[in-house]
Amino acid sequence: MSKKGYIILGVISLLIAHNLIITNILGFYYCNTTPKPFIKEKIEYPESIYFEDNVFGGFADKYIKDMFNNYLDGIHLKTMALNLPDGNVMILSFDKQSQEYKDFINAINEYREAGATYWHSREELHRKLESSEIKRNSKEHKEYVDIMNKESKREYENINKIKI
What we know:
It contains 4 helices and 3 strands; from the N terminus they run αβαββαα. By secondary structure, it is mainly α. It has 3 domains: 1-38, no CATH class; 48-93, no CATH class; 99-162. Strand 2 and strand 3 form a beta hairpin. Helix 3 runs antiparallel to helix 4 (139-162). The longest helix is centred in the last third of the chain and has 32 residues, at 99-130. It is elongated, with a radius of gyration of 31 Å. The model has no long low-confidence stretch (mean pLDDT 80).
């Protein structure tokens, strides 16, 4: 191949790949000259958050209630903003001084306590059954089953209180 052929091949290659070359040069320059971000503190739970629904143009009433129930609990998230179909933004807050918040915290604590009692009774029952300390369908067995049923019911009642 002659010198003229190499020049033509080089020009055609540059025409095809010029955007890749320029992009790589600019990216390299940007990465080396831009200051690196400094993370001063780690935020475990944000105080507030904004959700934007770009697919349907805003949150409908049903989804607003779901977002409120699923995310806004006053512990992990205190304020939430949602865009609405009419273009406005709805701001939802959870007040720690409200009775709802206190009831919510009490329900969570009761739920956890009921769950712990249930699992403790279950483990103890299985341990005693395996070691033959008690027999199946005996009086002691039924007492453990009654405790587990009571705590399971208490768990269910409190999980329903948690949903707003």
